[in-house]
Amino acid sequence: MPSVVREMPLFASLTMLHVTNHWQMRACDGLRVVLQHREMREIESMRARTGPMRGPGIADLASEASNWAEEYLASETHVQEIGPGGDWTKEFLEQQHGLTSPDIIPDSDTRWAHEYLSETLLDEAASAEASKWVEEYNPQEDSELARTANELLGTVDDPKFSNTEFMSFIKILGEGAKTDTNKDWSEEFLTSNSKEAGSLAESWSAEFIKERRQPHERWGEEFAKQLGSLDNMTIDSETMSTKEKEDFWQNLQDEWEKMAREDELTEHPWLSEFNSTAFEPFKNYQFEEDNPLKDHPDPLSEGKRCLEAGDLPSAVLLFEAAAQQSPENAEAWLLLGVTHAENEQDPSAISALRRCVEIDPNNSVAWMALATSYTNESYQTLACNSLKEWIRVNPEYNHSLPINDEAIHRKPRLMATTLAPRELIQEVQDLYIAAANQRPGENIDADVQCGLGVLFNLTGEYEKAIDCFNASLSVRPKDAKLWNKLGATLANSERSEEAIDAYRNALEISPGFIRCRYNLGISCINLGAHREAMEHFLEALNMQAAGRGPGGKESSRAVSDNIWTTLKICLSSLNARHLMDAVDKRDLKRLNAEYEVTSSS
Amino acid sequence: MGFRGNDRGIVASATAAAGQDFQSAVIFNAIQDALKADGHTLVNKVKGVYCFEVKGGPGGSEAKWIVDAKNGSGSVTLNGTAKPDVTISMNDSDLVDLMEGKLNPQKAFFQGKLKIKGNMGLAMKLQEFQKQAQQLKAKL
C-alpha cells in the first residue's frame, strides 16, 4: 500500500476538487498541493464550462474514494515519519528524480493509477469507467493531465507548498467529520454534474500548466500577494455552526499570520487580533525631505511655543528638526508624535512615539498616546500592549503586574503576547479597573479613566467609554484632547449632536486642534449638513497649508490625506462633480471660494 | 450593466432612488468614488465581484448592490445581475458600521450579523473598500 499512498495526492486532488464548493473538505496531504494553489478560485469560476468525457470516471471513483480516504488518513502516520517538513513531497520527488521530458509520464505513474483503480474499484461498472479514464490519461496522447502531473512535480519542491497550519487544519476537519459525513460527501459528489467534475479537472490542469511556465519564486510572491490559499476558501457562513466558525476564523488568522511572517504582508484589520509576533506597522519614521525649519537653532522650544499657540503644522516641522538634530532626545520624539496625532496623522504619530519609547521606555505619556493612535488604526493587540505598558511604568499601579510577566523579557516591549486577544483585552480591563478602584471616591485619576475609555472604544462598548471620559473631564475640564475623545466616542456611537457639543468645547480651548475640527466635519456629514462639513474641512486644510517656514514653502508632511479623502466623499454627496478636479489638484483657493471660506494665512 | 451616461450608477430610476434612502448608500457612494478615482488599481488588487444583500432598509425594504471590482475600472450597480464571487448579507445599519470600522468583523461574523457566502479571500479584501468608508470614523 505505501507506494499507492504516496502517490495518492495527485489523484486525491482530482477527486477532492469538486467538494471545495462546500467548505467541509475531507482532506489528505495531497490536498495541500491543490489548495495552496492560488488559482483555485479561477478553477471555481470555470466550473460552469462543459468538460470532457473523463468526468464520469472520476465521479464514480469517488464512491470508492471515501474508503480510500480513510485508508490514506490512517496511513498518515507513515507519511509523517519521513521527517519534519519532509513528508510525502520529498519522497514523491525522489521517485520522480528520473524525469526528463515534461510531456512524458514515466511508467511508474501510470502504474500507480492502475494500482489504485484495481485496488479500490469493486464493481464492474466503475472499473469500466475507470479504464476509460485511464485510457484518456494516456500520456502519449499529449493530454493535459499528463502535463499537469509534471507541473505538480515541478512545483512541489517549494517549501511553502507543503506545510501550513491551514492544511493540517483541513486534515483535522476531514478526520473529525469523516465518520458521519463521508457518506454525504461521496453522495454529493456522485450527484454532482459530472461535466463539472471534468471541467474542474481540466481547468485545474490548465492552471498548473500555466503555473509551470513561471519561475517558482514568482509563484511564492504571487501567492503572498494574492492571499494564496485564502482565495481557495469558499464558505457559506449561514450553514456553519459556532464551533465551525471558531475553527475557521482561527485558521484564517493562523494562515494569515504565517503568510504575513514569510512575506511581510501588512496586517489585516479583520484579523487585527493577530498583529502580535512578527508584525508591527509604521516602524520607521519618515522625515520631511524638504524641511524649511531643519536648521532652526532651537527647534524644541520654538516647537513648544507653536504648539501652545495652536500652530500644529509648524510645530510638526520644528519637532522634526529637533529630532533630526538630536535623535536620542525622547522629548523631541514624544512631542513630534503627539503633535502628529493632533494634526490628524496617526501613522506618523505612531512611528515617532515608537522611537520615543525605544529611547525612554518609562515615558507614560507616550504609551497612552500610542494606545490612542493604535486604537484609531484598529490595531487591537498593539493598543492593549501599550495600555499595559502605561500601567507597568506607573509606580502607583504597577504592583498589580506580575514581576515575571513575559512581556518584560521581550524587546521591544510592544511585541508579542501569547495571550489570545480576548484574554489580553480582559487582562488590560482588569488592570485599569483595579487601578481606578485604588483611588477612593472623588479622587479620580484622569489618565486611568482615559485609558479605560480608549479600551472601551476598542471593544465597541461606547457607553462605558463615555462614562470614563466624562469622569476624566471632571478632573481636567480644560483638556481639549479629552473633549475630543469624548466627542469621537459619541460620534462613533451615533450620538452626533452631542459629539458636536463636545468638539465645540475642545475647539474653544484649542482652536488649532486640527483633528477635532476634522471630527466636527465628519459629524456634520453624519447629520446631513454637508455644506457645513465642507467649511470645517477647508478650515482644517487651510490651517495645515499655513504651516510653512520662513521661506514660505509649504510642507507636504503637515497635510493630512485623511482630510482630503473625507472632503472628497463629502463633495460627492453634494453632487459637486465640477469641483472634483480641484480636489485632485488640492486647489484650496478654488474650494475656499466656492464655500466662502477665508483662508487663515 | 449599469447606467452609463449618469454620474452614478445608483441614481437612475425609481428603484434606484430607493437605494439612496438606505443608510448603506453612503458606503456604496464612497466605493463608487473610490473606483472612479483609482479603479484600475483597486480592480487589480481585488479581482472579484461582490453582491451585497442589504436588509432592513427604509420601511423594512431590501436592496442588492453589485460591486464589480474585477472588470475594467470597476463599477457599482444597484440591483445588478452580474454573478458574484461572494455574497455579503447584512442589515443596513450593520453594514454601515462594519464598513466604517465601528463593528468588529469577527464579532459580526460570529453573531451572524455578517453572512458570507462564497470566496472568503474576496470577503477579506473588502478591507480595501473599508479604508474608503473609514473616512467617516471619528478619531480619538
Main attributes of the structure:
heterodimer, A: mainly alpha, 31 helices, globular, disordered N terminus, B: alpha+beta, 6 helices, about 40% helix, about 20% strand, TPR_rpt (chain A), PEX5/PEX5L (chain A)
Can you describe this structure in just a few lines?
The complex is a heterodimer of chains A (601) and B (140). With 601 residues, chain A is an all-alpha fold. Chain A has helices spanning 2-16, 29-36, 40-45, 54-74, 76-80, 87-95, 107-120, 124-136, 144-155, 159-162, 165-191, 194-212, 216-225, 228-231, 242-263, 299-309, 312-325, 330-342, 346-359, 364-376, 380-392, 421-438, 446-459, 462-475, 480-492, 496-509, 514-526, 530-545, 561-573, 580-584, 588-595; one strand at 234-236.
Task: Describe the protein.
The complex is a heterodimer of chains A (601) and B (140). Chain A is mainly α. Chain A is built from 31 helices and 1 strand. Chain A is globular. The relative contact order of chain A is 0.07. Chain B is of the alpha+beta class and 140 residues long. Chain B starts with 13 loop residues before the first helix and ends in a 7-residue tail after the last helix. Chains A and B meet through helix 3, strand 1, helix 15, helix 20 and helix 25 of A and helix 2, helix 4, strand 5, helix 5 and helix 6 of B. Strand 1 of chain A pairs antiparallel with strand 5 of chain B.
Strand runs of chain B, count? 5
The profile of the biggest β sheet of chain B is:
5 strands, mixed
Number of helices of chain A: 31
Anisotropy-based shape of chain A? globular
Strand content of chain A: under 5%
**Cα-to-Cα separation, first versus last residue of chain A:** 83 Å
What is the strand content of chain B? Answer: 15-25%
Outline the secondary-structure elements.
The complex is a heterodimer of chains A (601) and B (140).
Chain A: H1 2-16, H2 29-36, H3 40-45, H4 54-74, H5 76-80, H6 87-95, H7 107-120, H8 124-136, H9 144-155, H10 159-162, H11 165-191, H12 194-212, H13 216-225, H14 228-231, E1 234-236, H15 242-263, H16 299-309, H17 312-325, H18 330-342, H19 346-359, H20 364-376, H21 380-392, H22 421-438, H23 446-459, H24 462-475, H25 480-492, H26 496-509, H27 514-526, H28 530-545, H29 561-573, H30 580-584, H31 588-595
Chain B: H1 14-21, H2 25-46, E1 48-55, E2 63-69, E3 75-78, E4 86-91, H3 92-99, H4 105-111, E5 115-119, H5 120-124, H6 126-133
Parallel strand pairs in B: 1-4
Antiparallel strand pairs in B: 1-2, 2-3, 4-5
Helix pairs in contact in B: 2-6
GO molecular function (chain A): peroxisome matrix targeting signal-1 binding
GO biological process, one term (chain A): protein import into peroxisome matrix, docking
Subcellular location (chain A): Cytoplasm; Peroxisome
